[in-house]
Design a protein that fits this description.
The protein has 334 residues and is an all-beta fold. The protein has no helices and 19 strands. The protein has a single domain (2-332), classed as Porin (Beta Barrel). Helix content is 0%, strand content 55%.
Length: 334
């Protein structure tokens, strides 16, 4: 939904010169109304239930360079109490040479893009499930990413000097006390690569990747992901495994492994149904966490209704700890 265009004058600086450039950004947003309920022993009555609506606005602008490359700028504007950008990115689309992107909060790409690509009608099974570590996956944060296609394979890489320090990285305005966050300071660099390949016209897509995540203690976490999806007619099925191996041998630092299964069925052009299941094991715990989710998506003209019902048992690998969430989301297109 395009709301309006606003003029923007930006100052672009470099090591050798500073010049003024003029551009325009297009504001867009969405009309989304949701109703969510929470429950379970891990809820503790602290999760609010009820109606809510989307309050975020995206400001986007792009321009073509003399060599045909396209630069795109995006600011995600939060509608919450803090009136600032909650994530921003600038990308350079170089055509057949691929696309390079910098994001100040959500790097994407690489192994991060493969955290859960199992078929689903709406959201991932663990979405909305309250736990500090509800699945094994490469995290996101500020940094650079690059994607390209080679011989039919899609390749993505990313790199961050510090995933944990993602807040208030503003150009030319950093200081030790106000602009630059100290959260996870000096956590070390992180990097990953992810590759996916659609096998001709068979309906089979295979993917995998590896990466390392820097930590404050100087010990890296090694990440690996591999899996496949298969589409036949209206049905798509998939399986993947995510593995986290903490190089710290201390018993207080856990290794995680998550197996994800998914199946989606497109009943017709308007109705889709899916089921997804997560099973996460933790090296320092004796029980596995299990999350299952049933989801439905129905479109009717310019309106889409999404339903999600998710249940977690042994949440955070703690016996008898449960969490449930049910969400109904109505989206209007205009």
């Amino acid at each position: 939904m395009n709301i309006k265009k606003i003029g923007l004058t930006a100052l672009a600086g470099s090591l050798v010169a500073t010049s003024a450039f003029a551009g325009s950004l297009t504001l867009s947003g969405g009309a989304k109304l949701s109703y969510v309920t929470f429950g379970g022993t891990a809820d503790g009555g602290l999760q609010s239930s009820g109606f809510a609506m989307d309050q975020e606005i995206s400001a986007t602008g792009s321009g073509e360079l003399d060599n045909g490359f396209v630069v795109t700028l995006t600011h995600g504007l939060s509608g919450e109490s803090a009136a600032k950008s909650d994530t921003s990115s600038i990308s350079l689309d170089m055509g057949d040479l691929g696309t390079a992107t910098y994001s100040d909060a959500d790097i994407g790409g690489g192994l991060t893009a493969l955290d859960n690509i199992m078929p689903t009608a709406y959201e991932e099974a663990n979405d909305g499930i309250d736990a500090t570590h509800n699945m094994a996956a490469m995290p996101s944060g500020q940094g650079f990413s690059y994607s390209t296609s080679v011989a039919g394979a899609t390749i993505g890489v990313n790199w961050s000097d510090n995933f944990k320090a993602v807040l208030d990285r503003t150009d030319g305005e950093q200081d030790d006390t106000t602009s630059q966050t100290t959260a996870g300071y000096a956590a070390g660099s992180s990097s990953s690569i992810g590759i996916s390949y659609a096998v001709a016209d068979t309906g089979l897509t295979v993917f995998g990747g590896t990466g390392t995540e820097g930590q404050v203690d100087g010990k890296e976490i090694d990440h690996t992901t591999y899996g496949a999806t298969y589409a036949y007619g209206p049905v798509t099925i998939g399986y993947q495994t995510n593995d986290e191996d903490d190089t710290d041998s201390s018993t207080t630092d856990a290794d995680f492994e998550t197996d994800i299964y998914g199946v989606a069925f497109m009943v017709n052009d308007n109705l889709s149904i899916s089921y997804q299941e997560h099973v996460t094991s933790q090296s320092t715990k004796t029980v596995d966490q299990e999350i299952d989710s049933l989801q439905v998506s129905y479109s009717m003209g310019g309106m889409t209704i999404n339903l999600k019902d998710s249940d977690a048992t042994n949440l955070a690998n703690t016996a008898a700890s449960t969490h449930e969430t049910t969400e109904i989301l109505v989206t209007f297109a205009f």
